[in-house]
Specification:
The protein has eleven helices and 13 strands. With about 300 residues, it is an alpha/beta fold. It folds into three domains: about 100 residues, Cobalt-precorrin-4 Transmethylase, domain 1, CATH 3.40.1010; about 100 residues, Rossmann fold; about 90 residues, Cobalt-precorrin-4 Transmethylase, domain 1. The strands form three sheets. It has a five-stranded mixed β-sheet with strand order 1-2-13-11-12, with helices on both faces. Strands 4-3-5-6 form a four-stranded parallel β-sheet, with helices on both faces. It has a four-stranded parallel β-sheet with strand order 8-7-9-10, sandwiched between helices. Helix 4 links the parallel strand 5 and strand 6.
Length: about 300
């Protein structure tokens, strides 16, 4: 979100929000679709589930649970085994990270009505991967192999590879030097990390291309954080501990050289976080607005 109120002045402290922070377009859309499904369920009696945790924020997931939106075991669906609730006539909302073709097919076979909340940028990456594979290119996904987005894109191809670090990229590029390669980045990784892998492949693979798939929201939050660092004495990075983009924001904050903390809720605020004249707040792309507001209010009570 764009910060509506960027600077708050208190007796001994300024609280400054990053100019861009919190839920990105894709996550906000998924959250809204899940809430809409919950409202419909209240009228129709349908059960509502999400394919795995909707977003990487425990508080947002708990908030949806309170509305009757439950979490399905995505791993069990992907594997095609394991215990699942009766999904006949139930609504299943696909998270912003997407899902594999096999998972989508299985849920439909089980009688679920699927609401696809996959981020449009992730859908584009899925389509690119399929197209390059059909054209005979080796698809190389750059990102975390354990991340839901990467797992979903893998499920739209038959032989895509995943590279997570420049070190693994070096070995892979040597193996693929004579094979046309198409690089597709996880939408939430840092541009610097993607650029490092691109450089390795460009130097070692005869034919390669790199698609621009990193979400601008990720870059906007990183740039806004750099701007924020220049204005404050300490930083609070707000978001789920399981959120990769929030963890990268925290890593960038540490690189700025200012005291920084990664917290999920106001309950994690500590006295050592507040003896500063100017405190900056930013939040990952899966962090709801209400959590940022709660933390800012809690800081006020601690001054």
């Amino acid at each position: 979100m764009e910060a509506v109120l960027r600077i708050c002045y208190y007796d001994t402290m300024q609280i400054i929000r990053a100019r861009v922070l919190g839920m990105c377009m894709g996550v906000r859309r998924a959250d809204e679709l899940a809430r809409e499904a919950a409202r419909d369920a209240a009228r129709t009696g349908r059960r509502v589930y999400t394919y795995g945790p909707l977003i990487h924020n425990p508080q947002a997931v708990a908030d949806l649970e309170a509305l009757g939106v439950h979490v399905l075991d995505a791993k069990a669906i992907e594997a095609g085994r394991g215990e699942l609730p009766d999904l006949k006539n139930a609504v299943v909302v696909i998270r912003a990270h997407g899902a594999s073709r096999a998972a989508l097919s299985r849920m439909e076979e089980l009688g679920a009505r699927v609401v696809d909340a996959t981020c449009p940028r992730v859908i584009r990456s899925q389509r690119l991967a399929r197209r390059y594979e059909q054209q005979g290119w080796q698809v190389v996904l750059v990102g975390d192999p354990r991340h839901g987005e990467i797992e979903g894109i893998l499920g739209h191809t038959s032989n895509a590879l995943v590279v997570e670090t420049p070190e693994t990229a070096l070995h892979m590029a040597k193996e693929l030097k004579d094979i046309p390669c198409a690089l597709i980045a996880q939408t939430t990784i840092r541009q610097e990390d993607y650029d490092a892998v691109i450089e390795i492949f460009q130097a070692r693979v005869k034919t390669m291309t790199a698609e621009k798939t990193i979400c601008p929201a990720t870059q906007e939050r990183q740039k806004a954080l750099v701007d924020l660092c220049a204005q404050v004495d300490a930083l609070l990075i707000v978001g789920g501990k399981n959120s990769e983009n929030t963890k990268r924001l925290y890593a960038s904050a540490v690189d700025c050289g200012k005291p920084a903390w990664h917290i999920e809720t106001a309950g994690e605020l500590r006295a050592e976080m507040i003896p500063f004249e100017r405190i900056g707040i930013t939040a990952g792309a899966s962090t709801p607005d209400f959590i940022v507001d709660e933390i800012q209010k809690a800081l006020l009570t601690m001054v």
